[in-house]
């Protein structure tokens, strides 16, 4: 049997790790969203020497030597600290007659922060857009969201001057929209994650943000605000406080369908 060298085997193991990852973990790697730390990943030479691989850079500086055959087992993929840009991949290995790789029973630990897999997938979708595609998407969004805004303002009878923009410079890892006044004009800066939201959700988002200037926005668009809350819960795993206000409005109108949706959000 032909003896493999350390560099060849290390690259083979990396490829087998990647092939067996779930799609979300693959997206994290493709999007370069995290540094990868390895645990239990080492190569053993024919003469007993060991080379530990703790990060991808270690492979670039790996000395080339003949290695013994081992069976490697993928134990876990830890994404708990993905918000801090860290993915930890744990392996174990034992001597074998030939190289083997087992990934049948590995454990995946997903992020436990206030962002969810849905949120990460949307950010990846945003980051994967080419510059030209992104420009087209933003122009399309600006046109659409301002049409929604105009209809909502007319329905409420609001007299203020309002403009809405996607904030391409904000920290994408933190879901937060900003509202500010500038020279008597209200500016709403929307997080890029909402670039992929439906019109109902965008209407709810605008109504919620503008309700600080006039409560009637909630009364007019409370059903859309509920849909916005549902999406926000899906993206952050947090229940928005405004849900209590729209629940009171739904109760006032005896809107059983909306109350059922609110109950779903509260108990998800």
Gist?
The chain is α/β, with parallel strands linked by helices.
Main beta-sheet annotation: 5 strands, mixed
Radius of gyration: 25 Å
Question: Which regions have little confidence, pLDDT < 50, spanning 5+ residues?
Answer: none
Average per-residue pLDDT, rounded, comes to 89
Strand content: 15-25%
Describe this structure in words.
The chain is of the alpha/beta class. It folds into 2 domains: 6-113, no CATH class; 118-267, no CATH class. The protein contains 9 helices and 10 strands. Strands 1, 4, 5, 6 and 7 form a 5-stranded mixed sheet that branches. Strand 4 (70-78) and strand 5 (86-95) form a beta hairpin. Helix 7 runs parallel beside helix 9 (256-267). The radius of gyration is 25 Å and the shape is elongated.
